[in-house]
Each structure stands twice: as C-alpha cells, then as structure tokens.
Amino acid sequence: MRGPLVANWCVDVSRALSLNLLPVCVAPDVPAPETPKPPRSPQHMAPAPIPAHVQEMLAVAMTPMAASVYYPATQPCWYSSYPRRRRDAVVVAASASSSPEETKDVVIVGAGIAGLATALSLRRLGVGATVLEQGPSLRAGGTSLTLFKNGWRVLDSIGVADELRAKYLRVQGMRMRSSVGGRDLREFSFEEEAPGQEVRAVERRVLLETLASNLPPGAISFSSKLKSVAGQGADGTLLELQDGRRLRSKVVVGCDGVNSPIARWMGFSEPRYVGHMAFRGLADYAGAGGQPFEPKVNYIYGRGLRAGFVPVSPTKVYWFICFNSPTPGPKNTDAAALKKEALELVRGWPDDLVAVMRSTPDDSVVKTPLVDRWLWPGVAPSASRGGVVLVGDAWHPMTPNLGQGACCALEDAVVLARRLAPAVLATGVGEALREYERERWGRIFPLTARAGLVGALVQWGNPAVCAVRDGVVIPRLVRLGPFLEHTNFECGLLEPAPPSP
Coil, helix or strand for 116? Predict the structure, then answer.
C-alpha cells in the first residue's frame, strides 16, 4: 500500500514548493534527556530527491542557493540546549518492587492536546482511560496555535468546538507583504479562495483546560511520572511510576510529546533539527481597550527571515518570527533578553508587527527550534508495539509550516478511538492498533514531508529568488484553495456510546 503513497507525496509537495502561506503556530513541547544521544539513525538521512520536473522548474533558483539551504548532516541533538520540562528516559526493567498492581484498560501517558483528545474520544465511545501527567497541573506553556477546518471538525466530533468558538475570532483572510517598506504583495479572502474554510487561533492553555473539563473527575492523574516500561505480556503492559505505583494496562497510548520517552523505548530516533528557529509571543491588549486589527493572518517576507501575526481574540494577538540558524545555540532563560533579540531581528520591518511585539509581556515570549521526523517506509519503526501505541508529536513531529501539528494530533485521537474502542471492549487490540497506523501513515507522512520542504524553500535568502517570489510567485501564481486541500479531512462524528442497561 505504501508504494503508491511514497510516489505520490511529491505531487502533493510540489503544490506548495513556491510559497509557505501559513503562520508558524505551534511551539513543541521540548523536554531534555539526561545524556547525549547516539548518532542519527537512517531515519534522519536527507530526504528523497525532488522529482525531475520540479527540479527543472527550480534549477535557476536553487543553484545560487546551494550554500544557503541548511541540511544538518551532523548536527548534534537540538534539544540538549532547549529543555522545557525535564523527562527522564524510559527504560525497560524487571521490577523488584512489591507494590500492588493496578489494572487498567487504557493508560494515556501525557496530558497534552493529543492525550486529552484521545481520552475524550474514547470516553464518547464508552471506554474510560487514565491520563498520566507528570506535572502537578496542566501544562501552561506555549502561546497560541492555529486550527484549520480539519481540526475544528475533530473538536466538533468530540463535543467541545462550540465552547472554543465562542472565545476566539474566526480569521477571514490573509495579507502578505514584503519586509521592505511593508509593500503589499497579495491579499486573500478565505471565503472567496477556499469556501467553507474555518481558521481560528486559540490559546494552548485554554484548549487544554477545555478538553480536561469534559473528562470525568479523577481521569487525569497529576504528578504521575513514568519511570519505566517494566514488561509486556499477554495480560498487558506493566508501567512503573516514579512514586512507586505500578499499572498494568491492556493499552498504553504514548502522547508524551516531541521527545517522547515511549517513542525512544519503541526504537524511534530523536527528532531532526531542520536549521530554523522560531520566536513566538502572545500580545495582550486588555489594558488598551482591545486589539485594533482585522481578523486576518498578516504574513511578512524577508530574506531568510519571515514573520507575521494574527488576532486571536478581542484582546490577544499571536505573533511569530522564523529565522535560519545552523545550530539552536545555548538556551536563554532571560525573558527580557529574548524579547529584545526578537525585536532586533525585525528592526525596520512594518510598524504594526513591531507594535504587536512591544505589546507582549516578556514572559509570553518563547524561542524554540523547529524539528520533524520523517516516517520513511521500511526504516521507521511501527507506531505500535504489543499494546503500546503512539499518537501526535510522539509519533510524527512536524514543522509548523502547514499549520497541521495540532490538527493532525486531533485527527489521530479520533481515528485511534474509533479503531480501538470495539477492541478494548472485546478481546484483542493488536489488529486495531495496526489498522490505526495504516490509516494514519498515508496522511501524516506526506504532510510531514511537505511541511519540511516548504519550510526549507521559504527560508532562502538569495536576493534573486526573493525578488521572483515577491514580484511573480505571490502576486500572480499562488492559489490558496489548492494549497489548503489537506484540510479537507473528514473525521466523521463519534457517536456517544449507549447507556448501560
């Protein structure tokens, strides 16, 4: 089945090679391991060559840029300088603990977007799940993320979309400008170019709180850090927690983020740093009577540098900057210095962007590396091992150039729940997990590859290429509808389970 998909993903990618239209919108959860990691596995080999017909179209632009496009062949693991939350590596160990075992049907590791959405999806189908979160509360980190039509369809299916829609503005279109003098290049209306499209930026914190509030009390076990996968057998997978508890579960769902310890246990390599860094921030206009902007994505292009902002709510505006960097560099925890560094990058750029950044509290500015993992067929491990399965960033971290990281995690949750619920309620789960992987791989591998290639191309700094982009590609060639075809994913509704007799 994968053969035709591998061949066809280049066609999907070619639609977006000329331009990235979407905001850098998702800050990954970036924990750090304790020790340096071994060299990259074959999963981090350079991507397959761009097809000949695409190479011919881009030959003139690519030739002078050969020294400017960054392909990190020997870059050390990016996260070593950018921990956000410390997670110890999960090890496989025979436990000598005498603590009694708790038996569960489903244990979800990680109370992020993927974990909470999976728990809520399963609950609607009559399956309860215990969500383990290592922190004492929901994670409040991150700024904002953009959800497109496919993400909102998932939120509709699990019953929380309208609650969020009431809080956040519907984005009506997109304005694209040059960093030189703020010259307008193109303006789009979503309704005209992509009828039916729904785009809203939401605060990550509020999304997590909304998902969690729809779970029953006690569904999330806080301060529950995974210590080890102590064994697997016919009766399930045994998990040991740092506090000494032991859980044996029929199914374990790894939703533990970009640097998932469970993914490492399953044999996945570390995510690949792609050579780009991002600043993100959330401006607050509550004390100024509200933000003054139209509900549009504002995108500004420079040379090897792009930035933008989008209104989130009547009082909040999300902004981002993406810039080239051969290494992530040292971690900077000085919030004021981070904001100053971001402002320095866009000195002389349009005043409205700079004003949004200046209206941002220092502690709302984050700087993160952009990473991905391409799930090459025949090279990447399976998404499941026994009764353990991966969802979201734990399985397929992707760069945010298509705005699909959170949307794909939400899709994963619904697809897995629909496959898994009947199996949990019956006898075996192995085939259900394999069906989930087969269904999702054909979607997330092309999207991950496309997002990575788009990001590499739009970060070019060659003056000739940028002139063609600003003078020809954006004003005359870009079509928003075809670019957003990937948001047409239909997840269907999750019909609530009938009440027990």
Answer: helix
